[in-house]
Amino acid sequence: MSDITVKYINARLTDETQYRIPYWEARATEKGPCLLITSALHGNEIQGAEVLRRVLPAVRAGLQRGACLFVPMANIMAVRRRQPHIDFELGHYYGSDNINNVNCAWPGKADGSNGQRLAHAFYQDLLPQATHLFDLHCYSRCWAAIVYARTGNETSLAMARACALRFAKHGFWKPEIAKRPIFPCTQSDLFYDTGRTGVTIELSGQYGFCEREVRRGVRAVLNCLRLLRMLPGEVERDDPLIWLNDAQEVQVAAPHSGLFMPVELNTSDPVEKGMLLGHILDDRDLRETPIHAPVKGYLHQYGVIRGVGRNIVFDPMTIMHPFVTEGETIAVITFGAFSSALT
Ligand SMILES: [Zn+2]
Q1: What is the pLDDT of residues 30-46, one digit of tens each?
Q2: What's the gap in Å between 230 CA and the centre of ligand 1?
Q3: 40 lies in the same domain as 152
Q4: 46 CA to middle of ligand 1, Å?
């Protein structure tokens, strides 16, 4: 049995209000990796908090080496405000804002924006101890869960495989183009570029919990703890893993405008060629059009999402609305690349 203690990171807002971010710490007697798991660095991406709550009993019962630093609500002020960043207004950029987006702000600034101050507090208190990072985020529910790893970082790639999700992607960087680290950067880049390792996961679904996704997250974390020999047992794998770097995809476009009603499928599910994906009810003449899968593969995107990417105006309500215009992508089916040099 390992003791789990609740500890705190101290941060302060731009108005100098102090606040504390609680985290769980467990340490084994035997030396080993120090795994930092951050969840909800974006306050609307909260599924990882439940993942960590469920993983904790296994750590308490069986941590055999190293240390765990689990931060279920890393951006706790944004969580309390039920929004992505501490300072956030609808219509502001979500992803590419490297002033307010804590995920783009590492190593942060002691006297910067609220997001930069939060990154700085982590950078001072937790990052020096951690050797491995597991950063838990959530995409919109129309996008499948995915794990991101660093090309050439063998432990990162092994952790990505151990996550046992359907989709994975590895990212390159070219040392001849730029010397790393380049600040500000993401937390994961900071780890990779300072000789450490880890993965970033995006589960499917923001602003709430989805049992299927939480279970995916629990399996991914437990598997990584086993891979690192911090917990006993073997890595559990079942589904084929698709490296998106090498995969092919087919986008399914809406043939006309209307309301897209999906069937009982979820992101990451397998689909057969010709399988019914849903219907579009035409807003002009009420004709209905069935939508079929043009190829066999796996659902990388399922449902309508618009305004995504790095330069978007973010409105969580309208981007999820099922009214589609002609030509809009309503599903993306990915196939191939089950095995590559990396698997
Ligand atoms: Zn995020």
Answers
A1: 999 999 999 999 999 99
A2: 26
A3: yes
A4: 9
